[in-house]
Amino acid sequence: MRRTFDLWIKQAERGLLRVRIPKEVKPAQNLRGMHYHYRPEIFFQLFGRTEFRFPRERFELQPGEICIVPAGVPHGETVHADRDQPFRNLVAGFYNNTLSLHFAFEAAPHHPDIEAIEFFDAPNLDVFLTLTNSLTHAHAMQAPARDAVVKGLLLALLGLFRNIVETGTGNLNGDVGKVFQAKVIVREQFSNPDLRVQDIAATLGCSADYLSHLFHIETDERLTHYIQRIRIEGAILALGTTSLTIAEIAYASGFADPAYFARVFKQHKNMSPQEFRAQLDAQRSQPEPQPKTVYPNRVDFSPGTPRKPSSETVAV
Both ends of the chain: CA-CA distance in Å? Predict the structure, then answer.
């Protein structure tokens, strides 16, 4: 993994590393054959090809290319091996103060799955996310210095990956690792209304009863409750950051019935989804509690007022 990132950094320094990012679409759409995440995902293609499908386009990721799928963008993946090389890619995911890197292989014809996964403590996860989101925005802009900005952000992001692989603690194993991997699976698939404890246990190679017991012992929370809580967390994020209807958010968060979603939401937040969204809107309209500018003799809460230039002002 270290050698892989070293190679990509050298390619990026020479301007030879191609980055593919899909066009912006309405986020968090529940589309057949596609899924999405509430945080971005990064694909590093090693061997073979990955055919990505998005609501408005599709493209193939070739070896030595990177694809960033922005948060909330629905996508589907079909993988293809080369004649002399099996399919392989490296996928980065972001979770609560944790970074995951997994190698994917062709588990069934044209269907990828996890071959090996490592988790790294990332207290600076917000920096990874800021760089990834900034790279997404810079890639789409039309500006004279676009290429320089993209190259700089890409090098910074790859450098952080290289450092965390070298110095971070990875490879959670044993029972604790199973609990953590169960959490990752739930966060990746919570929008799937058919997600069950049995499916998660089968992926981790253990029984549903054992995983449920282990999860409860390690976290003091039942796995079924955790799945429901993560779905509500996703809905909360969508309520505050999208214009989706309540029903659309319910479906996108893994609830097959919007009425049931509303009941569960009220159990968790003591208010309906509509009331929660209205509360967020009201909070946004309130003035900032801290002044914008502090002077020796006064404070100023205003963002600033343009002044008409005087006749003596010299244009630059």
Answer: 50
pTM: 0.67
Question: Assign residue 18 a region: left if phi > 0, alpha if psi is -120 to 50, beta otherwise?
Answer: beta
CATH number of residue 264's parent domain: 1.10.10.60
Backbone angles phi, psi at 136, to 5 degrees: -60, -45
* List of E strands, the chain: 19-20, 41-47, 49-53, 58-61, 66-69, 76-80, 88-95, 98-108, 111-121, 293-294, 299-300
Which amino acid makes up residue 151? K
Residue 73 lies in a domain: yes
Asked if 144 and 244 sit in the same domain, the reply is no
Contact assessment for residue 239 and residue 277, using Cβ atoms and an 8 Å cutoff: yes
176-183 long-range contacts (CB < 8 A, ≥24 apart) are 176/218, 177/119, 178/204, 178/206, 178/211, 178/214, 179/214, 179/215, 179/218, 179/219, 180/98, 180/119, 181/117, 182/211, 182/215, 182/223, 183/95, 183/226
Q: How far apart are CA 289 and CA 109, in angstroms?
A: 57
Do 106 and 249 fall into the same domain? no
Is residue 18 in some structural domain? yes
The tens digit of pLDDT for each residue in 244-296 reads 899 999 998 999 999 999 999 999 999 999 999 999 988 877 766 666 666 66
| 295 in a structural domain | no
Report d(CA 215, CA 229) in Å as an integer.
Answer: 14
Helix (H, G, I), strand (E, B) or coil at 309: coil
Both 25 and 151 in one domain: the answer is yes
Here the tokens at position 65 are 């290319």
Q: Could you tell me the residue range of the domain that residue 215 belongs to?
A: 174-284
Which two three-digit tokens encode residue 79?
Answer: 């993988």
306 lies in a domain? no
Residue 133 clears pLDDT 70, i.e. is over it? yes
